[in-house]
Amino acid sequence: MFSRRVHTFPSTEKYLVQSRRRYSSIATTISHQNGFPHNQTPPKPSRSSEIPPLSIMPMPLLLKSYFITSILASPRIIKFFLPLLNTLANSKSRLLNPDRNPVLHMIVRKFIYDHFIAGENSSQVRARVASMKKLGFSGVILGYAREANVTGGVVQFGDVMSVTKEVGETAIREWRDGLMNTLSLLQPADFLSVKFSGAGPLALHALINNLPPPPLVSESMHLLLRAASAQKARIWVDAEQQDLQHGIEQWTINLMRIYNTGPKALLYTTMQAYLKATPSNIKNHLKLAQAENWTLGIKLVRGAYIATEKRELIHDRIEDTHVAYNSIAANLLTQSFPGIDVVVNGHGYGNGIGIGKGYPRAELFLATHNEDSIKHAYAIQSTRIMQGEKTIELAFGQLQGMADEISCSLLQLCRKQSHEMEVSGNAPGEDRGVVCLEEEQAEAKAEALKPKAYKCMVWGSTQECLQFLLRRVRENGDALGRTGCWVRGFRREIWRRVRVRLG
């Protein structure tokens, strides 16, 4: 199980301490007593902060989440369940493929698919997205589940060298059409999740050999990015196995040079904190963004392919991954990433290269189920906002069907900030004209303090989505280790509601 301790760093520890002291009403909403310094007693929570985060969830969803999470919390069931899920996700047999066996399809949908997946068609997906927005999420990240499987350089998508150009381009068109359909289901501020491996053999061949994208892949990405820009949605490119990752990053950088030239990032790249080289990789991305004047969008994850990566590339201990993840987030939020310098009025400061350029523009999306990382990042950002210091845009995301208590904590905090902004706006004043500017500034701060919470989900055929779930289970092994805590949280909320109903 992962450590529950909040990691602090010399350059950012003061922000955590200050935020806990000055803005305890915020911290108590998303943290527990062990989140405070040892010499400080946390303040008594306000009445609103005593309401459990899971109170936001509708009762049917709460009961279903309790049932599914209870299964995930049982090591014996998981030991039996994962091999079975792997068989169903990869079987070509008519009997064991849920897309070909109607009875199996119904069972899988009832007990697994519907809880974790957005749907199989546009109407199902739109209904699920609407339900997330109704709960209060800032948006969703929606992906098309199809992805090639590459393990240790061996492509399982068929022998790419033997595939004809016609067959390869057909696969690219199917991938493009699936993504365009997915994009059509999104609203402003939502994200489209893209995996280049889903484009099939021609894309895989180019990625493995560090070649430019096939012309049809390039045309498809330009089409997607223009369409996303028109509807004010955004796109992130997922990280994949190291056999493909160098090519993925180069393709993404070339697109960011074109589409991220404004103050906001249209395209995000993904960085994996479990890789030892990731801090250096981010530094190089920041230098490029600084030198070429574009905005770097980063989705930060711990890592999704630990079972297939070369072991020497990964941190030796999980604690090292935690420290790397939190320090990367802290350095980005405080705009103090090691190795990046800026010049103000001819005077340079910093500790790297890049003299003559302003600090690179960046945005950060923390895709994590780790509560400590969320508290750590939000404490830094909220303190800097309250103190009028520069920071960057920050958002958080969890997978659909997982880490619901964390997601609901973020939603609850968002509602609290909205309520406080509404109350302050209605407060009587001696001279409305005099205080107008101050009120606008206060409202802007309150709006900035509202955490942006997202749910990540995919849609597609049942078997394709089972493959997605298997990858996410492997990626979130630490989250599975904490399912016991989630089960207890669901149980407490269910009993709380029962007691309320009984008076």
Helix-strand layout with pairing:
Layout: H1 13-22, H2 24-30, H3 59-72, H4 75-90, H5 102-116, H6 122-135, E1 139-144, E2 150-151, E3 154-155, H7 165-184, E4 191-194, H8 201-208, H9 215-230, E5 234-237, H10 242-259, E6 267-272, H11 278-292, E7 296-301, H12 318-333, E8 341-344, E9 347-350, E10 362-367, H13 371-386, E11 393-399, H14 404-426, H15 432-449, E12 452-459, H16 462-475, H17 477-481, H18 483-502
Parallel strand pairs: 1-4, 1-12, 4-5, 5-6, 6-7, 7-10, 10-11, 11-12
Antiparallel strand pairs: 2-3, 8-9
Helix pairs in contact: 1-13, 3-18, 4-16, 5-16, 7-9, 8-10, 12-13, 14-15
Plain-language structure description:
Helices cover 53% and strands 12% of the residues. Mean pLDDT is 80; it is low at 1-49, 149-158 and 345-356. With 503 residues, the chain is an alpha/beta fold. α1 (13-22) packs across α13 (371-386) and α5 crosses α16. Strands 1-4-5-6-7-10-11-12 form an eight-stranded parallel barrel, surrounded by eight helices. The two termini are 38 Å apart. The radius of gyration is 23 Å and the shape is globular. The protein has one domain (13-423, 443-502): TIM Barrel (Alpha-Beta Barrel). The chain is built from 18 helices and twelve strands. β2 (150-151) and β3 (154-155) form a beta hairpin. It has helices at residues 13-22, 24-30, 59-72, 75-90, 102-116, 122-135, 165-184, 201-208, 215-230, 242-259, 278-292, 318-333, 371-386, 404-426, 432-449, 462-475, 477-481, 483-502; strands at 139-144, 150-151, 154-155, 191-194, 234-237, 267-272, 296-301, 341-344, 347-350, 362-367, 393-399, 452-459. Residues 28-50 are annotated as: Disordered. It is an enzyme of class 1 (oxidoreductase). This is Proline dehydrogenase. Keywords: FAD, Flavoprotein, Oxidoreductase, Proline metabolism. GO terms for molecular function: FAD binding; proline dehydrogenase activity.
